[in-house]
Amino acid sequence: MSIYNSDDHEKNGFDPNASKLQKLLNEHDGLLIASPEYNSSLPAALKNMIDWTSRQNDEFKMGAVFRGKVAGIITASPGAFGGIRCLGHLRDVLTILLVQTLPSEIAVGKVHEMFDGDGEEMKDEKMKKILENLGASLVDTLKKTRGEAAAASKQ
Q1: Do residues 115 and 123 touch, judged by C-beta distance below 8 A?
Q2: Could you tell me the pTM of the whole model?
């Protein structure tokens, strides 16, 4: 997606990729967002995605694909703080869009040490369990707030 600019949006119309992503977001009740921290905040690409998909188009009203969702948030950084400063910014953005963020949030510090070389499997079992617990907490919250059947049908 191009960088969001309201003048370009008005002139050129709604980005078709943003429209596809809106539809995908609309199909789910929960979000598990994992983001790196760039300069103590969220990356521009993530913010741009949120900016585009929160906009009104012919199918959705302003913010409709986010409103009422539940989110778990995770950041990672090679630094010791693990992206902790990004979490506050991300939470603020999601709150404006009426997304309920779980009170538990995870900042993975020294993320480069959590994996064995280029492998995809996390070798730090303690952190792996913490991350799995956040995912389980998101599912449990959705079951409690949306009902068991709704949560199961969306998996």
Answers
A1: yes
A2: 0.88
